[in-house]
């Protein structure tokens, strides 16, 4: 009989899940309100689209800081501070008086929100060391899967009902509850040797990410790779190359590239990137298909995405247990094959495809991606010391952000080119189907990194026994000094699905 998740872990998840859900939903709720913003502020679409773009770029820029912040200030302080900045940004957005002021306030909101997701992953990954790992990774995947699906639905309800300002103002009471719960559950940490920030690395990496993400988002907005887009991406890639050279020379970079020496970590990170591209095929193209081909409104189209959320939720419930029992590879492989089958079926999309057929397919697609994300998250943290967890989370979040932006750019550009010259609904429906070949290609490529994931979870010892993987890395535990482990535990507890001693990470 499967063991139940400890009550203290459930309490921790419940306390910090609200903030992460808000961040994920805010990324998509605003898209529903863009037309209302354009009318209220008498601004062009090219201006109001920056309400979304500024938020995305601010989130991207602060991701590399998350790993340092949790080592420097502790999980509790870093979390509450980030949530406070997000709440302030939400209030300022709700009282914005112009398009320019709203864009500026979205930057403030994005700075806070960009920190919350990597902090959430780090806190749960550290807490689940040695036990309940697959179930915990399923919890980490839940906001990322359900937020973008529920966001358009809630956004449509608020915009049609009480107005676009409540997309932001509704965050205030929820953030207050989330802060109260987190303050009660997250213990304070005493850190004797605060981590030093790699300032040069941050100055190189954050602009590199922003340049790449902005360039790709512009490609999706403008429908092609124009000179400004190419220049932005090229500058981002150049800065990224400079950062790589820097990170390999310094002992504690803001983004530890040495993590990629582990074959399992590298495979999981690549799987996450490709999975995000395949996911965007559903949550980007299907709502557009409903609105452009079938003529549904935003709220109607958002509600029809509910099967994707249901499929994801069911998969996360089951996949976590199976990952604990059988390992990451079989779970991820099952999800990838299901996702591939769904995207291939959607390549046959046409104007005559019924919404019931699409609902069944996207429900299965949500289940497939849920299994992929659990398998990938489990592999990311396998065999890592506690001290390495924040840096692994930073690396994965960077790849997720760039992967999502890349997916949006490729699919939006592909749709615009395929739909060019479409003079009927039948031709437009066929254009959507053709565009899904890009998502199917990404789903097929996920099979490559899955082959390098751990085949089976190593045998675990008693859940109460401490992990004993040897490590020279210092431990940061609530109520203890850095480098001083509690009685009965090793100083370098490893974050791994098994509690038994682990061999050194596999090398690529």
- What is the string of helix and strand elements? HHHHHHHHHHHHHHHHEHHHE
Major sheet details = 2 strands, antiparallel
Helix content: over 70%
Q: How many DSSP E strands? A: 2
What is the global morphology?
globular
Strand order of the largest sheet: 1-2
Number of domains: 3
Query: Which stretches of 5+ consecutive residues score pLDDT under 50?
Result: 458-508
Compute the separation of the termini in Å.
Answer: 36 Å
Mean pLDDT: 74
Report on this model:
α3 runs antiparallel to α17 (389-419) and α14 (306-326) runs parallel beside α16 (355-380). The longest helix has 35 residues, at 7-41. This protein has 3 domains: 1-182, Up-down Bundle (Growth Hormone, Chain: A), CATH 1.20.1250; 199-255, no CATH class; 259-508, Growth Hormone, Chain: A, CATH 1.20.1250. It has 19 helices and 2 strands. With 508 residues, the chain is an all-alpha fold. The protein has helices spanning 7-41, 45-48, 50-73, 75-94, 99-127, 133-161, 166-169, 171-185, 199-222, 227-247, 263-283, 285-293, 298-303, 306-326, 328-346, 355-380, 389-419, 425-445, 447-450, and strands at residues 384-385, 494-495. It has a two-stranded antiparallel ribbon.
